Amino acid sequence: MSLIDLIRDAGIVGAGGAGFPSHVKLDAKPEYLIANGAECEPLLRQDRRIMEKNAAGIVRAMVAVAEHTGAKKLVAATKSHYGAAVEALKKAVSGTGVQLHLMKSTYPSGDEQTLVYDITGRVVPTGGLPLDVGTVVSNVATLLNIADALDGKPVTSKVITVSGAVKTPVTLEVPIGTPIRALIEAAGGFQSGTAEDYEVILGGPLMGFLAKDLDEPVTKTTGGVLPLPKGHRLLAYKKVNMDRQAKLAKAVCCQCSVCTQLCPRAALGLGVEPHKAMRALSAEKGALLGNPNSLFSCCECGLCTYHACNFGLNPQAVMGSFKKALAGAGVKPKKEVKGTVDPGIKNKKVPSARFLSRLSLSKYDRDAPLVPFAVQVETVKIPLKMHIGAPCKAAVTKGTAVSAGNVIGVPQGLGAVIHASISGTVVEVTGDYVTISKRAG
Ligand code: SF4
Ligand code: SF4
Fold it and tell me: Tens of pLDDT along 189-200?
């Protein structure tokens, strides 16, 4: 069986991003293959733990992907201060031809396009992919899933850091579909009080979003579980009201353009101009937006919001909402590079520690050791959409007995196969979920 077939059958999607199916992404002929172990967001530790635990697996997958795709330049990228992970990678790459690329602790070093530029000196165009400049980037967790696929194991679990306002931050490997409540319990529970006193960010503090409730299940792309006490200033940024943002833009935005000056995608010459998005929002005139195509190059990293703007405005959310509106109106991104790379680009990266202090998060910057399978879950609710593309169609019905690893969802077009993450009986099937219980049956 070809590597691409193995990856497709294992249901692998980009574990560190939006869930692009890996069998589609890797069916390519790149010059570079980059393993992304930058773990961009502060507070998260899962990629670091994955590299410490199984650097050999990551490198094995890189070599297999290179054999399939013909990539000649293999680079494993991580941060120089990830001591044990760097040591493990150094040992694993020895004699394989994989180069190590070590970065400082700055944000957003793990942004795919920033990483591609840092390593290759090439700029991924707006509306394009790293493949447009001969590169494929895979997160280290995705590569480890590929190593597992080589051994016949599909994606049934996810490694996730639980940090923030929990008693004991921890990194866990849990079955897909585990409710986040169980992860918080495994981290000793909330620091004080009850669940009512907290809200939970899924993902990192800068790019993550608020969980609807504690029953929300872990997916193939869940990046972190970070409870914060209600009233924490970061939470207000996650509840954007566009009408209020427009009023604030009108009343407060002085068009200083610091948000644009510090935008990493603007620094790549991609013409991203968040200050113009704020201007257009405040004046309700789309014509003031500048080049709308450049909106598509905004990666919603949040640097403009959490670091650049001194007035507490949220250009990250405004850019995201404009992008969504363009996509909703059927506007497709045009491939282009608008300008040239800012010669000062290296000095525009922001030390991660600065974000933590600005966002009153420094006290949560604690270690989160790996405790695999510390969560004993009885029931999992597995989403049928954990990837870009249409939701999968359930391949089981209520009452079906399943073993961990059995196929329970099949893609409808672009997508990735979904497998049972525990053995048990299917107790519910909807258009959105398959629920499996160990107890039933
Ligand atoms: S959003 Fe903030 S940083 Fe950007 S132009 Fe307005 S005031 Fe300046
Ligand atoms: S979120 Fe802000 S800083 Fe980040 S890419 Fe978009 S406009 Fe630039």
Answer: 999 999 999 999
Which of 56, 49, 42, 37 lies closest to 115 in space, CA to CA? Answer: 37
Cβ distance 160 to 174 under 8 Å?
yes
Region 121-139 average pLDDT: 97
Provide the whole-model pTM.
0.95
Ligand 2, atom 1, lies closest to the CA of: 300
Ligand 1 near 319 CB (within 6 A): no
Q: Is the CB of 249 under 6 A from ligand 2?
A: no
- For residue 440, name the pLDDT band (cuts at 50, 70, 90): low
Centre of ligand 2 to C-alpha 244, Å, is: 20
Share of the chain above pLDDT 90, in %: 87
For residue 133 the two structure tokens come to 């400049």
Q: Is the CB of 333 under 6 A from ligand 2?
A: no
Does position 373 have pLDDT exceeding 80, yes or no? no
Measured from the Cα of 265, ligand 2's closest atom is: 5
- C-alpha distances in Å from residue 32, one per residue of 63, 166, 397: 12, 40, 43
Could you tell me which of 3, 12, 21, 39 has the C-alpha nearest to residue 388? 21
Kindly list the structural domains of the chain, giving each domain's residue range(s) and its CATH number in brackets, ordered by start: 3-150 (3.40.50.11540), 156-232+360-377 (3.10.20.600), 242-351 (1.10.1060), 378-441 (2.40.50)
* 325 Cβ contact list (under 8 Å, min separation 6): none
Tell me the backbone φ, ψ of residue 238, rounded to 5 degrees.
-85, -5
Q: Is 394 in the pocket of ligand 2 (CB under 6 A)?
A: no
Strand partners for 201: 210, 226
- Across the range 141-151, mean pLDDT stands at 97
